[in-house]
Each structure stands twice: as C-alpha cells, then as structure tokens.
Amino acid sequence: MIMDGGEINTELDHFERIFTTSSLYQEIMTIYDGDEHGKFMERLDTRIRNHDRDIERMCNHHYQGFIDSIRELLQVRSQAHKLKTEVVRIDEEAQESAKQLLAKSEEMIKTRKVQSNISAAVDALTLCLPVLTTYSKLQSQMKDKRYYPALKTLEQLEHTYLPRVASYRFAQQMRDNIPRVREDIKQASMSDIKDFLEAIRWVSTRIGQVAMKRAALQYNMDPKLAVTRNERHATLPPNPFTGETYEAQAEAQSDEEEELCAQDLIDFTPVYRCLHIYTVLGARDQFETYYREQRREQARLALQPPTNMHENLEGYRQYLYGVLGFFVIEDHVLNIGNGLVTRSYLGEVWEMASGKVVNNIRNHSSYCTDTYLMLNIKNLIMLFAHTLQNYGYTVTPLHELLLEVKDHYNEVLMQKWVQVFRDIFEKDNYHPVQVETPEEFSRITEIFPYRDRNLEQAQFPKRFPFSMMVPKVFQEVKVYISACLEFSEDLNLSQTEKEDMVRKSTNLLLTRTLSGCLATLIKRPGLRLLQLIQITINTLHLEHANVLLEHYVAKLTGSIEDSSKPGLGRLQGKAMFKDIRGEAEEQIYIALRLKIDEFLDLASYDWMLAEPRGMSSSYVLDLIAFLTSTFTAFTNLPVRVAQTACMSACQYVAKCLMAMLLSEDVKQMSLAALEQVNLDVIQCEQFAATEPVEGFEEGALLMCFADLRQLLDLFMTEDWSTYFHDYGSENSKYLRVSPHNAIIVVEKLREGEKRGMFSILKRSDKKKLLETVLKQLKQLTQHQHAS
Questions:
Q1: Between 706-717 and 739-753, two packed helices, what is the crossing angle to 10 degrees?
Q2: What pLDDT is attached to residue 113?
Q3: Which residue intervals define the domain Exocyst complex component EXOC6/Sec15 N-terminal in the entry (predicted)?
Q4: Is 315:309 a contact under the CB 8 Å cutoff?
Q5: d(Cα 527, Cα 176) in Å, to the nearest integer?
Q6: Based on C-alpha coordinates, what's the Rg of the chain?
Q7: Which of 51, 340, 441, 525 has a Cα-to-Cα distance from 152 of 20 to 30 A?
Q8: Burial group, residue 471, by CB count within 10 angstroms (0-12, 13-18, 19+)
Q9: How far apart are alpha carbons 418 and 396 in whole angstroms?
Q10: SS3 for 563-615, per residue?
C-alpha cells in the first residue's frame, strides 16, 4: 500500500508527537543539551557492533536449515511442474467433456428466456387487449358517427383500461390523444346539429302547414285554407331527414295528415345526441347558447316576408307556415329537450316574432284592394292564431291585428262601393220606375219594401215615385252590411261589439261614401233640372229607408232593438240624406235659374219700338210653359221645396226683367217698348196668379212682380202727381218705386223722345213733362241722400 504525501506527513507528525513525549526522547535531549555527545557516539557504535555479532551468530546457527530448505524447494518445483502438466491435461479433458453440456445449457437458457418472454407477452397482451379492443370500438363508432356511444367508450378507455397499461408508451400516446378525440366528437356533433338546423329550415313550412290543417279540423274551419296552391301538382323537395319525397306519400298524408306531428317529419336525434355529448363534456351551456342563437337567427329569417306577399293568398300562407313551423318545432324541443329550450326563452322569441308578424301583415295587407283576398287573409290569420294558441302561445296581438285589418277591409269595401254607387248613378235614367205587371211590381218591392196604399190600389201600369237608383242603392247597402258582418264573424267579439262594429261601418258608408257620391252626382255638369228633382225625391225615400236598414242590421246581428235606448245602434243616414237633399235643393234652385236665363237670353226687345205688338213675347210664353211643366214635376217633392223653387223662380224672373229695363246697355227707350214689357209682365203675373204650386197665401207669388208692376203702372199712367204727393207714405200707391230707378227709365225715355217717336206738339209737351219729372226725381234723390 503506497501512501501519498499527505498521509506520510500525517504519520510523521503522529510519530513526532509520540517520540517527543517518550523517556528516550528526554534522554537524547539531555545528551544533546550536555557535553556527553562523544561518549554517546562511542557507546552507540559499541552497541551496533554487539548487535552485528549477534546477527552473525544467529545466521551461522540457522545456515544448514536454510540450505535444506532450498533443496526441498527445488524438489517441490519439479513436482509442481508435473502437477501442472497433469492439471492441464485434466482441464483439457474436462473442457472437452463439458462442451456438449454447455451447448445444451445455452439452449436451455435461450428456451427459458423465450418462455419467459412469451409469458410476459401474454400477460402484457392480456392487459393491452381490452385497451386495444376498446380503442378499435371507439374508432368504429367514430366512423359510424355514433358519437354519444363513442364518448362513453372514450370515458371507459380513459378511466378503466388505460391506467392498467400506464407503463406502455402507446398508452401515453392514447392518453395524449383523448382531448383531440373529444374535440373531434364535439366538432362532429356540432356539424350534425348544423346540418339539422339547415334541414329544419326546409321542412318548417311543411310542419306549419300540417299543424294548421289539424287546427282547421279541430275548430271546424275550412281545411283548404291550409292547402297551398298547386299542392297536388308541384314537385316538392324530398324530406331532408328521411330522404322520401312528399309526393310518394301524398295519398297517405291526405288521409292521415291530422295524425302527423313534428317528430313524424323531423329526426330530432342530432339534437338529443349533441345535447348529451355537450352535457357529458361539461359544455352544456355552450351548446344551449349556440342552439338558441342559431334558432333566433332562423326566426329572423322566417319572419322576413316575401316581397310580393300582398299579391295573393299563397304568399301569406307560405309566410305563416314558416313562422308557425318554427314555433311548433321549438315547442317540441321544449317538451323533450331536457331544458335545452325554456318557456321563458320561447316567450321572448314569440314576443319579438309576434310584433314582426303583426307589422309585416299590417304593411302588406295595406296594399290589398281585393275584399275576397282580405277575407281569406282574415281566416288564415284566425287559423294561425288558433294553432299557436293550441301550443300555449299568446295571440292577443293577432286578434288586435285582425281588428286593424277589419278597418282596412271596411275601407276597401267603401272604395269598392264608391264604384258600385257611381255605376248605379251612371246607369240610372232618373225617371220614376214604371211597372207593367204584378211580377215587376213584386220584384221592385222585394228589393225595396216600399208601401203606399194608393199605389197598391192603382191600376197597371203603376209608377213609383222614385227611380231605380233607390232600390239598387238600398240593395247594395244591404250587401255591404252583410260583407262587413262576414269579416266580423269568428273574431271572438260579443254581440254588442259586433253590432256596434257593423253599425259604425254602415254609418261610414252612408255618411262618407254614399254622401260623397251623391254630392258629386248633384254637382255633375250637364245634369238637367228634372234629373235633379228626381235625385232629390230619391234621397227622400232613401232617408225613409234608414229605418229598414236599422232593422236589417238588428236582424243580422241578432240584437233586439230597444226603444228605451235611443242612442244605441242608430244609423246616421237620415241626417246625411237631409244634408244631401239640402244641397240638391240648392242645385235645383241654381239649375232653375240657369234655365230661366236660357229663356231670358232669347229676349230681343226693340227698345225703340213704335207700336207694341199687342201680345206677350214668345220667350215669355215659352218660359211660362217650361215653369208650368217643371212645377208639375215637383209633385213628389216636399211642399216646402216646391214652394221655395216656385217663389225663387218668380222672384228671379221679376229681377231679370227689372234688370233689362235698368240695364246700362239700353241707352234709349220708347213708350211702346215699355208697353211691350208691360204685356210680358202681365203674362208672368197671370202665371203667378194660377198658383202653380199649392200652399201659397193668396197673392204671395204676385208680390214677386210688385216692384216691376208699380214701376210700369207709374210710367203707363203718368200718374206723377200721385207719386210725388204720396212719396214717403206707407200707403203710397207707388211705394216700391225708388226715385233712382224712375230716373233711369225717365232718362231712357227722354233719349228716345229725341229720336222723334212723338209728334212735334206731343214731343214738346212730352219733353217738358219728362224734364219736370226728372228734375223732381233728382230733388227727391238729393233729399233722400241728405236725410
């Protein structure tokens, strides 16, 4: 054993400590410290020599033994060589004999290793085989898109089998692959739900149609409302869930359609599967949020109406089918979706959807001008509301919408009836209806129940006081009332509400539509006086028919007229017809004056006539004949109207004749011309004296010509002294002759006198008389202005 330097130093230090502490050391130190160093060296040499002698003696004593030992050792050497040779030989023989044993042993060792490996492999495979089988099953399920069982298999693989083979690398790879497989399952199931959502968009319309058909049968409504146009002929796309065409099952569906429901047309498996998958994966909230957002978006798409929806009923059908199908599907998911859809969520979506549905139908129906289409729209909305109500949705906005549509329907009806009334007025001849046979009489009275004992007892031909306009208008108003009531049916209105609604619509028809048409009629250019008179008579009978219309409304609505409630359900036709008749009467007066103007325009007086013709002018005779026949036609008018017309006609004729005399266009006048005017006035006075209209006080019509008569008498008799003497007196014979008018006539006569209409003597006297009268008249005028 070789010691390194550090160990040597340590040993030396140890020896030094021992040596310095021994007695020998003390003696040596004493020697070195004293003077006996030389002695010590001598004695040391002596001691060394003694020891050398001892060693020599000892060697001499053992020399023979050493020699013997050497000799024996040499003998052992030869023997050892022999032994070695023998051992080598034996070893070679042993090795030769052991070779086969070693070969067999090696074979046995190898076999034992193989056997051990096989056993280990069997054990490992026993552990791994369930893992691999489960993993293969997982792959197969994924391939077959059985994602929910695949997820269960994955859970079993992760928590049951993989921990048993955790030491294997492939197990770690599988464990690392599990999150990706889960994500693949999520993505695949989400892909399925996307396909499902896309597919239900195409089948929602069909589901809505089936649901509406069932509701139509339930509420005894017309199932044809839920039948699309050309349903039996159009080629529909196949069901995206079953792949079957609807045409292939058309006959079976027509018989069993009422038994169908949402799950019959839709495979909801992707929804259940995806919900379960996301629930197991702990992402249920994520799936619920995604599903609801997607369905909300689909609801917005379903709520967008076709641009041409207002053109026909089919557009409204398809729109409502799509909306209804959406909510039928959601209701089914609500019932079986394990909380995927909640009632509060559906309530929010329906609240949003109902507002849009109402707005869209309101906007599109406002363009509709076809009453038949609007009735079908109303029935379709009713069926839509009933169907939704069956599924628990609130349909109050739809009922309110129906009331709005009803108002528009009434407006459309009134617009339609404007043309109806115009056609009646256009085709009417404005002559009293005359019937030749009892059958014709019955046909008129069946349409318009007019009762007049004198007419019934009269012989044929019989003449009604009104024209055909009256029964036709009466009949059309009844048709309008029936049409209004037809829309109000099935609106869940009480009898009172229904009655008030019909009466309100009828009042609008009478006071706005019919009133406007009549007002336009009586102001139509070119309408003759006799036609105006007949229109006025017609309005009188239509006013009387107002009571018949009230009875008709009460009969249709099933209400009982209560006289104790005079304000209930009264039609406003009477006041309207009175107003229209008032306008017609004004038009009669205007037309009468215009006709009188036509006759007066024919007047062609020769104001410088030398001698009067001795008879009235022809235009006056024609005017009197016209007035006589006209006032005869006033027989069926109220007496007040006839009297007013007659009085105004006489006043107007007198006014026009006075205006002729005083016209500035007539600069000069002869006395003969004045006498001719006097003859014409006498003819008018004779007409007035005959009282062409009964009921006037005696002389009332003659008073219309009093101003003209007094003026003419004054000039015919030249009774100026009486005029000036009695002027200003209430009992004056010429009380109605104003100085101003007299001055105008005197000046015209004075100008005529200058033309030599009189003899020289008479001309001089006449001139003096006229000058004197003119002077006095001007004085009266000045005095009158001064006062």
A1: 40
A2: 92
A3: 43-212
A4: yes
A5: 101
A6: 68
A7: 340
A8: buried
A9: 33
A10: CCCCCCCCCCHHHHHHHHHHHHHHHHHHHHHHHHHHHHCCCCCCCCCCCCCCC
Give residues with Cβ within 8 angstroms of 610, minimum separation 6: 670, 672, 757
| Residue spans of the chain under pLDDT 70 | 1-28, 32, 34-35, 223, 225-264, 337, 559-574, 755-766, 784-787
In which element (H, E) is residue 462 found? strand 462-463
C-alpha distances in angstroms, 743 versus 228, 711, 722, 738, 770?
90, 11, 16, 9, 10
CA distances from 103 to 89, 107, 117, 618 (A): 22, 6, 21, 170
Neighbours of 596 (CB within 10 A): 20
What is residue 245's three-state secondary structure?
coil
Q: 190: Cβ–Cβ under 8 A, 6 or more apart, which residues?
A: 274, 290
DSSP state of 161: I
Structure tokens at 558: 């099933």
Under a CB-based contact definition with an 8 Å cutoff, are residues 286 and 278 in contact? yes
Cβ neighbour number for residue 672 with a 10 Å cutoff: 17
Structure tokens at 193: 């739900």
**pLDDT by residue (tens digit) across 432-473?**
888 888 888 888 888 888 888 888 888 888 888 888 888 998
Q: Are 661 and 608 in contact (CB under 8 A)?
A: no
The structure tokens listed for 252 are 């079976």
**Per-residue tokens: 519:** 């007002």
Rounded distance, CA 242 to CA 253, Å? 15
SS3 content of the chain, % helix, strand, coil (to 5): 75, 0, 25
Look-up: residue for tokens 């069997």?
Answer: 122
Residue from 154, 150, 137, 153 nearest 189 by CA: 150
The tokens of 773 are what? 């009268």
Other CB atoms within 10 Å distance of the CB of residue 617: 18
